[in-house]
Amino acid sequence: MDAALLLSRVDELPRLPKAISELLDAVNDSQATIKGITSKLAQEPIVSARVLRMANSAYFGSSREVASLDEAVVRLGMQKLRTLVIASALVGAVPASKAVNLGEFWGNTFEVACCCQVVAKSTKSEPDAAFTCAILHNIGELLIATIMADSVHEIEALIDAGGEVENSQIAVLGYSAADIGSLLADNWKFPPALVDGIRFQNHPTKTSPYSELAGLLYFCKQVSHEWDDCEDDERTAWLAGIMVKSGLKVPMDGLAQRLTAVRGQGYEMGKLLA
Question: pTM of the entire structure?
Answer without folding.
Answer: 0.85
